[in-house]
Amino acid sequence: MLTVSCKGQHEKVNCSEEEIVLSGPPSNLTGYITFQNQEKEDIFIRDLPLNPKGKTRSVTSQSLDINTMLSPQQVKSHFTSHSMNPDTPPGTYESVLTVGGKDRKVRMIVQEVMDIVLIPEQVIFMGIEPEKVHRKEILLVNRGNIPVVVPNIKHNTTIDMDLICRNLSLALRETGEQGTVETLDYFIKGLKKDVAGWVEVSIQQAGELVQPGETKVLELFCKLPKDINEQRMYEGDIRILDKELYYQIIPAANPRKTTKKTEPK
Fold it and tell me: At what angle do helices 161-175 and 180-194 cross, to 10 degrees?
C-alpha cells in the first residue's frame, strides 16, 4: 500500500478538478475533491501540500488533511474540510494544492460569522425599590470574523412567575366551568392588575464597535419601575445581539438585629 502525504508520493494520485472550491465559516471550510488511483495497489491519502497565494496569515497549516483510502483504479468523490484562523475576514482566498504532479487552484470562500459570548450569562440585582437603578459590568467577547455594534437597549419586561401561576390558578378556580374565553379574560385582568411596568435598560457603550477577537466591558444599567412590589422576586432576559442575558431581581437581605446576651448572675 502506498501512502500519499506532504512528504511525497502525491504524484501517484490524480485529481479531476482543475479548481477546488471550499466554502463555509473560517474554522470549517468544506467541499469535495474527486481522486483517482491510477496505480495497481491500494493508496492511502493522508494529506496534500497546500501553499497559500500572496501574503496571508489566514491559512493555519501548509497541508490539506484528506485521510481516505483508494483501491486500484478507484475513483472517489471525497468530502474534505479545512480550518483557517477564526477571525479571518469574509472573502475569497486562494491557495495551491499539489496533487497528481500538478498544481491545482484552491478557492476558499469564507462566510460571515457572528459569534459573541456574554460573561457572565446571568446576573442578580439585589434590592427592590421603586425607580432604583442597578449597575452591572459584563464582558462581550467577539469570537466571530465580523465587527459587531453594541446595541442600544431601552426597555425590558420583567416577570414574577409566581404572579402568573397565582392568577392562572384563580382564573381556573373561579371561571373554569364557564369556558375558555371567560377563563382567559379573568386571567388577563389579574395579570394587568399585578404585573409591574417596564424595566428601563441601557448600556453605556451602546453604538461602539467590537472588532473580531476583541473583548469589551459593558456597563449595564437597569432602572426599576415605579409600581414594582418590594416583596416579590422578578426575572427576565435582555437580548444583546443574538444572545440573551438572564437576570433576577431579588429583595435585599435584611440584617438580623443582634441582642446582647446577659451573663447569669
Answer: 140
Q: Cα–Cα–Cα angle for 126, 127, 129, nearest 5°?
A: 150
H or E, element range at 118: strand 116-119
* pLDDT at residue 194 greater than cutoff 70: no
The predicted model gives 47-64 an average pLDDT of 70
Q: What confidence score (pLDDT) does residue 170 get? A: 65
Pairing status of strand 102-110 against strand 19-24: parallel
Radius of gyration, alpha carbons of the chain: 31
Residue 197 CA: distances (Å) to CA of 25, 192, 215, 226 = 42, 10, 33, 7
Query: Cell for 164?
Result: 402568573
Contact indicator for 88, 28 with CB cutoff of 8 Å: no
Supply φ then ψ for residue 128, to 5 degrees: -125, 115
